[in-house]
Amino acid sequence: MSLVFILAVYLVAMRTEGYRWGLVASAVGVIGSNFFLTLPYLKINFLLAGYPLTFISMFAVSALTSMLVTRGKEQAALARTAEVEKTRANLLRSVSHDLRTPLTSIIGSSSVLLQSWDKLADPDRRTLVSDIKDDAEWLLNMSENVLSATRMEGSTVIRTEAQPAEEIVYQAVARCRARLSGSDIGIKAPKGLVIVRVDAALIERVLINLIENAYKYAAPPITVEIEPPKNGLAAISVADRGDGVPAEQLDTIFERGRQRPPDSSRGLGIGLSLCRAIVRAHGGEITCQIREGGGTIFRFTLPAEEEEV
């Protein structure tokens, strides 16, 4: 009986906030035990021999259990808050570092155009304008990543609903085709619709990051493939035919600050680490693999309906 009593107090403390309800459950449990389970039945009597010590001990143990459980929950909440603050600080450091290079480039190119417009040949002017456009687009992509990261790190809960994976993929590919001139992006999908339970905007952000990553640092063609559901999970992959990721970087490529190409003046920022955070928040996993014949495959899983529609 004592174990059941303590278990009940434990469950109440786990499912409520603060100390109040755990202590109330302890008091109610002691009174209820006296009323229903001890002689004289259906009467409250704490004065019989041994009863005072027994019930005081029961209340003390249950109250201590309640307080320990509540304190543990508070410490866990503090730990989560500290982790969020640490992640936010790392995000700010990463963003401030990655924004500096394109901003400096934009200022430099625009200054040259303003000061030497008449002296520059038309091809040189076009090159400078093109550089400004590329840097501005990169800044736009970074700002979208920051907004998604802020949304992810502000809450551990995401709003999901059933969505056709094909619709999300087509939307992401369409945006990339419009943004990336000359891009060669293909789509492979099964015959039936694959329904996934996701936040469509966040998954679209994952796909855009992976496609733009392949476009900038790999070689065409880029293929986005949707795989049929299996064991409650559907998979989407983005494959390219570039040089591939060095084997020693496969385990760290999703860590923030570790995915900077050695020959690039600016890295991928928070792109790949954000992809992993979004996928994991949906209950999936993302991997990077070396593609047979050359290239890289980024593959991630998402919760899905078992049957294709």
TrEMBL record:
Q: Where are the transmembrane segments?
A: 21-42, 48-70
Q: What is this protein called?
A: Sensor protein KdpD
Its keywords, alphabetically, are: ATP-binding, Kinase, Membrane, Nucleotide-binding, Phosphoprotein, Transferase, Transmembrane, Transmembrane helix, Two-component regulatory system
Enumerate the PANTHER family for this protein: SENSOR PROTEIN KDPD
**EC numbers on record:** 2.7.13.3
Its organism's taxonomic lineage begins at: unclassified sequences, metagenomes, ecological metagenomes
Give yes or no: UniProt keyword Transmembrane. Answer: yes
Protein's gene: kdpD_29
A GO cellular component annotated for this chain's UniProt record is: plasma membrane
**What is the first-listed, main subcellular location in coarse terms?**
membrane
Sequence ranges assigned to domain Histidine kinase in this UniProt record: 94-306
Membrane topology note: Multi-pass membrane protein
Report the SUPFAM superfamilies cross-referenced here. Answer: ATPase domain of HSP90 chaperone/DNA topoisomerase II/histidine kinase, Homodimeric domain of signal transducing histidine kinase
List the subcellular locations: Membrane
Task: Give one GO term, molecular function aspect.
Answer: phosphorelay sensor kinase activity
